[in-house]
């Protein structure tokens, strides 16, 4: 940018930026039980034993662990990451507490306070914080609160059960619904799918399991809130959502972590299954600690998310707002096997300072008449790198497939990078594939125009960026959209000078 | 209201304003006319505080306060409105959202109560109707896909909503047909012709002055005001040309 700003302004902005901390960066003092440091078969056995898992689950983990040992960390992404020492981390950390809570009242008050501070409703009479301003009627949202390696609470269980919906931490589900879990676990993302998926399969600690039975429309939004608290600890959660024929569910995922100087690993796996006429809407607001301005600390976010649109006319929508993490490696995908099935991917990825994001999607069209829409909005600031990487593949038997892809990049400043890497593989001539891409800068004209109308510089940037990301933000459930809009502004504070 | 004294300003390393002085009192409408490159837009941007426009000497006070020490948004909150020659597009941000955010930011800065969504929409619709802009257009993104005339009307609607003390209108008449010109002229009169308000019209042509009758006309050339007079000066300029009058 060619803006000349007098040094007084620059200094003030730098000061403002330095004073603004990652709001969710606090940590909670708790007595925590860890697995022995490092990764080995013993670690895997320790976790499985802690979870009181059946033998088949342990075998599955061990098999994944052995595969992982033979695999190599992927290096094709546009990410510059120091080698990760897998022996220098804890793979299981759990707040010491009663093994089972008779009611939410027994929850450790420190953990309760943590969630209160984060604005997450783990009491059923409350709804998500931050909604009042939007003037919305109070809506119920069921929450699975995952704290380090364990789920500490799931709410609205009874009400959901009356509708036939199973909403459990995955650890509980393995014990209570082993057949259902076993039927689908690893069917969308096989244990050996990739390096990080294999790691997850070996040591996953908790996560969420959802089953919506045939013809049921889930009566409320479901959500999981992931919090990494303990230091030097990785979080490896696993989520499995199955929507049976004609079922509908909307699921939200949020995450934060304390501000620490060391990098922490988050390697999650999310599997979605949609049968005939089923629909799953999966929304994420990812706000892991991004590291400081110099790139010290922050979460390494290596996530495998995939949906199997197995049934005819099934539909899965991924919406993600990625503002956090030092490194993001994530490609929520849809395998569109069902005839006339639909896959959607709406993404906003913001990178600032030294953050790196390599994110996108894969739409694998195997079903006839399957359709997909990809809208990706990348916003880069500071000295960050932001890459969209996407694959659209059409199999030989998939007739009349349609895909529309739109990738827009917005640059703030002149030291950041935006990259678009689309892969298109079409093996059926009846397919219609469209790809549009733009790269733009926030112009000095736009900034001054908004400032002249009364907005300070930060608000002007936030407004323009929110406008840029609007198509994606409007896909989010209202509560999340309000939060996401604020986050976009906060993430870019101090980025235009 | 606005007191400019011996203002020197440069942009991109070039000195444009070279000792400009001008006093505007409440209740007055001033027109600044001048040939291309005289420094008309530089004057508007400098008073608005646009980054890249550096004041090297002189002063400007607004209601007695040092205008040049304020950030652009603080100048706006103080009651300064700049009508743009080329209104800027902001994709994805509706006019309603833009203006409500802006108005409430100004009100916050002044310590006034903010407008609720309902109050604001009422105000915005009334202003749009008064200026012949379809209120539905307020739902569309700021200036995106607007014709030249619509953009200028929209600028006037913004001015009506933000209700500034001083409006500096930079070539607001450019790109307007006769009908739009009349509407804009009436808009300026309705919104800004008041004992506690003032207008600085920056224009190349005399024709807007058929609709907004200025109290004073100034000729800007070489970065300075070289002549001042009443409305008749505009007619003389139109007849004789700048070269003659500014010489």
UniProtKB/TrEMBL annotation, chain A:
Q: Which residues form the SUF system FeS cluster assembly SufBD N-terminal domain?
A: 162-217
Q: Where is the SUF system FeS cluster assembly SufBD core domain?
A: 226-468
Q: Which Pfam families match?
A: SUFBD_core (PF01458), SufBD_N (PF19295)
| Secretion signal, residue range per the UniProt entry | none
Which InterPro entries does this UniProt record tie to the protein? Fe-S_cluster_assembly_SufBD, SUF_FeS_clus_asmbl_SufB, SUF_FeS_clus_asmbl_SufBD_core, SUF_FeS_clus_asmbl_SufBD_sf, SufBD_N
**GO BP annotations, alphabetical order:** iron-sulfur cluster assembly
Tree of life domain: Bacteria
What family classification does the UniProt entry report for this protein?
A: Belongs to the iron-sulfur cluster assembly SufBD family.
What is the protein's name according to its record? Iron-regulated ABC transporter membrane component SufB
| Organism field | Sphingomonas jatrophae
Automatic annotation (TrEMBL), chain B:
Q: Which residues form the ABC transporter domain?
A: 2-247
Report the InterPro entries cross-referenced here.
Answer: AAA+_ATPase, ABC_transporter-like_ATP-bd, FeS-cluster_ATPase_SufC, P-loop_NTPase
- Show the GO MF annotations: ATP binding; ATP hydrolysis activity
Which keywords does the record carry? ATP-binding, Nucleotide-binding
ATP-binding as a keyword? Answer: yes
Q: Which PANTHER family did the record assign? A: ABC TRANSPORTER I FAMILY MEMBER 6, CHLOROPLASTIC
State the family named in the UniProt similarity comment for this chain.
Belongs to the ABC transporter superfamily. Ycf16 family.
Protein name, UniProt field: Fe-S cluster assembly ATP-binding protein
Originating organism: Sphingomonas jatrophae
